């Protein structure tokens, strides 16, 4: 069975401080990992995916198969980063059927 | 249409009544998904339609829940004999590229069962 764990419900940081949103997964096969974000009063949207190895809005995430983790990081938090972040797990051949974590609310304080 | 459209945006119903939630996916998207978002529960997968294939219903919590997708486009999620624990935001998403992980979500239907 697939499982995604986001241990923090709420993460509060000051503007300019580094951010790390934790995500751990459980899956016996070859995983595909994603981060989704939901800004206030906006729709849930894809932020980034591990296979692209990209940086979006200054965020990066590295898949660590040894630790089964896919933590989301940003070196300097901005006020506009305040949002709900969901880690999601897919699998090869699964179409885009994703298993989501419970989400972490990021609050960036001035 | 610019994106996935869901209606109604809010639905209040009495326990025991049936409700229907509608989703219009982005034109041309072959895959359609229903998720449920409850407080503290994250997004719970309900059902997945891909083209003309049989839907993946593995996430439906009980036989009170069912969904249809007519003509490969619009989908309706039906909850019969609603219970208070069915109260949640029901999200619909569609996607085009298989395996990309890129889902386009609607704004959701907030269902409240009194």
Describe the secondary-structure layout.
The complex is a heterodimer of chains A (about 110) and B (about 110).
Chain A: E1 3-5, E2 10-14, E3 19-21, E4 24-26, E5 31-38, E6 45-49, E7 60-61, E8 72-74, E9 83-91, E10 99-100, E11 104-109
Parallel strand pairs in A: 2-11
Antiparallel strand pairs in A: 1-4, 3-8, 5-6, 5-9, 7-8, 9-10, 9-11
Chain B: E1 5-7, E2 10-13, E3 19-24, E4 31-38, E5 42-50, E6 65-69, E7 75-79, E8 88-95, E9 104-105, E10 109-113
What does this structure look like?
The complex is a heterodimer of chains A (110) and B (114). In chain A, strands 2, 5, 6, 9, 10 and 11 form a six-stranded mixed sheet that branches. Chain A is built from no helices and eleven strands. Chain A has strands at residues 3-5, 10-14, 19-21, 24-26, 31-38, 45-49, 60-61, 72-74, 83-91, 99-100, 104-109. Chain B is built from no helices and ten strands. In chain B, the strands form two sheets. In chain B, strands 2, 4, 5, 8, 9 and 10 form a six-stranded mixed sheet that branches. Chain B has a four-stranded antiparallel sheet with strand order 1-3-7-6, with no helix packed on it. In chain B, a hairpin with a 5-residue loop joins β6 and β7. Chain B is globular. Chain B starts with a strand and ends with a strand. The chains are: A mainly beta (110), B mainly beta (114). At the A-B interface, β5, β6, β9 and β10 of A face β4, β5, β8 and β9 of B.
């Amino acid at each position: 069975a697939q499982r995604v764990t986001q241990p923090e419900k709420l993460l509060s940081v000051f503007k300019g401080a580094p951010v790390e949103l934790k995500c751990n997964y459980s899956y016996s096969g070859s995983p595909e990992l994603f981060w989704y974000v939901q800004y206030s009063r906006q729709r849930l949207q894809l932020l980034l995916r591990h296979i692209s190895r990209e940086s979006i809005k200054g965020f990066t995430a590295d898949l660590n198969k040894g630790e089964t983790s896919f933590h989301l990081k940003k070196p300097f938090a901005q006020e506009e980063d305040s949002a709900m972040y969901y880690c999601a797990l897919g699998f090869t051949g699964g179409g885009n059927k994703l298993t989501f974590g419970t989400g972490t609310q990021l609050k960036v304080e001035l | 249409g610019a994106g996935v459209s869901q209606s109604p945006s809010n639905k209040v119903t009495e326990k025991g009544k049936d409700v229907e939630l509608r989703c219009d996916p982005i034109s041309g998207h072959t895959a359609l998904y229903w998720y449920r978002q409850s407080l503290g529960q994250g997004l719970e997968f309900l059902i997945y339609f891909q083209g003309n294939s049989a839907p993946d219903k593995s996430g439906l919590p009980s036989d009170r829940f069912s969904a249809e997708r007519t003509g490969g486009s619009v989908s309706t999620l039906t909850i019969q004999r609603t219970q208070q624990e069915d109260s949640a935001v029901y999200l619909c998403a569609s996607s085009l590229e298989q395996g990309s992980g890129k889902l386009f979500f609607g704004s959701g239907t907030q269902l409240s069962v009194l």
